[in-house]
């Protein structure tokens, strides 16, 4: 998924005026500036082959693209590249006199709206943002999800439904689980109706709940869970353990700790397991990274946990799942470690509010 805070920005300029404006922006924040050979300045990158070819490469390599060019030119060059709002980078367009900065693509999830406002502030320009929630000075569910690094079941349709309800002046409640309530004021929630108690709802048309829980009290109105990706899993298993066995035990461990599977952020293990099919399959199924640690890294925290001589002889360290979970969660482990059928699973939670 793309991000609401672009980490890598490519800027394209096609005219001498555009190059001058790019020079001004380079002094304010980090970006890679691309231009033609004849306009090349120190620190700029020449187009590789052609303008269109360079844009095509950048579209998949950068989280945001900024063009100092006519909107029509930009639309034509990115049209064959556009996929969907979940993966497209932010695209922002501005004129070389910096009168207008336009959020063109991926306004919410990609962060184009936020980047547009930032650039307009630097240049004292007019930000042009046309997304319905922003025009109506309302929060957007996809923006909130991106800021929280959270996801939803049937993300695309749920975002469309909730945002449409907001701009249609429907009453959409927003409830924060206790782990997140203290940080709620950090986020843009304009248009949502605050909810403090799931057992005593005000009059609402729908409810959004920010939570890691797998189950919430049943409601008589549509309920949508916004699930921050905060749960980590340290894991170990015997070589060639069946993928289904690992998947079943992992589901049991999540359920035992009342975590929604969508809350999973990363799975970790020891380097020896980097090619373990069951762990790779599990990470792929949940669409999360699989991170491995060296024996030396795990050994630094081995003293905190019970050790197994069998595991030490096999792996080189007396415990795998617990030290891995400790490293991934910065020491914030939860529940007890599952040990069944040669599989160990330790869960933790990270704080990214």
From TrEMBL:
Cobalamin biosynthesis central region domain: residues covered: 140-219
Positions of the Cobalamin synthesis G N-terminal domain: 54-134
Family annotation (InterPro entries): CbiG_hydrolase (IPR052553), CbiG_mid (IPR021745), CbiG_N (IPR021744), CobE/GbiG_C (IPR002750), CobE/GbiG_C_sf (IPR036518), GbiG_N_sf (IPR038029)
Residues covered by the CobE/GbiG C-terminal domain: 231-347
SUPFAM superfamilies: CbiG N-terminal domain-like, CobE/GbiG C-terminal domain-like
Single GO term (MF): cobalt-precorrin-5A acetaldehyde-lyase activity
Alphabetical UniProt keywords: Hydrolase
Main enzyme class: hydrolase
Enzyme Commission number(s) from the entry: 3.7.1.12
Official protein name in the record: Cobalt-precorrin 5A hydrolase
Originating organism: Buttiauxella gaviniae
Encoding gene (name): cbiG
């Amino acid at each position: 998924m793309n991000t609401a805070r672009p980490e890598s920005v490519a800027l394209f300029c096609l005219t001498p005026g555009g190059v001058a404006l790019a020079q001004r922006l380079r002094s304010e924040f980090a970006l890679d500036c691309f231009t033609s050979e004849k306009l090349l300045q120190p620190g700029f990158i020449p187009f590789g082959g052609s303008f269109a070819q360079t844009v095509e490469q950048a579209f998949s390599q950068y989280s945001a693209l900024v063009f100092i060019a006519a909107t029509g030119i930009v639309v034509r060059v990115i049209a064959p590249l556009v996929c969907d709002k979940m993966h497209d980078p932010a695209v922002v367009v501005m004129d070389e006199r910096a009168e207008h900065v336009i959020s063109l693509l991926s306004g919410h999830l990609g962060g184009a709206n936020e980047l547009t406002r930032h650039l307009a502030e630097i240049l004292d320009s007019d930000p042009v943002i046309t997304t319905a929630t922003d025009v109506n000075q309302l929060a957007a569910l996809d923006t909130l999800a991106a800021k929280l690094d959270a996801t939803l079941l049937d993300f695309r349709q749920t975002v469309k439904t909730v945002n449409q309800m907001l701009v249609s002046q429907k009453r959409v409640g927003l409830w924060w689980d206790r782990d997140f309530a203290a940080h709620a004021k950090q986020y843009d929630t304009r248009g949502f109706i605050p909810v403090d108690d799931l057992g005593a709802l005000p009059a609402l048309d729908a409810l959004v709940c920010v939570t890691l829980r797998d189950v919430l009290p049943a409601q008589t109105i549509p309920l949508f869970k916004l699930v921050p990706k905060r749960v980590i899993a340290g894991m170990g298993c015997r070589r060639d353990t069946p993928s289904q066995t690992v998947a079943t035990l992992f589901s049991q461990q999540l359920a035992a700790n009342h975590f929604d599977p969508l809350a999973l952020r990363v799975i970790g293990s020891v380097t020896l397991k980097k090619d373990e099919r069951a762990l790779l399959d599990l990470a792929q199924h949940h669409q999360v990274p699989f991170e491995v640690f060296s024996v030396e890294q795990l050994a630094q925290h081995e003293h905190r946990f019970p050790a197994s001589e069998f595991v030490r002889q096999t792996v080189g360290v007396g415990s795998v799942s617990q030290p891995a979970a400790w490293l991934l969660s910065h020491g914030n482990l939860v529940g007890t470690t599952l040990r069944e059928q040669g599989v160990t699973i330790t869960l933790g939670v990270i704080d990214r509010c």
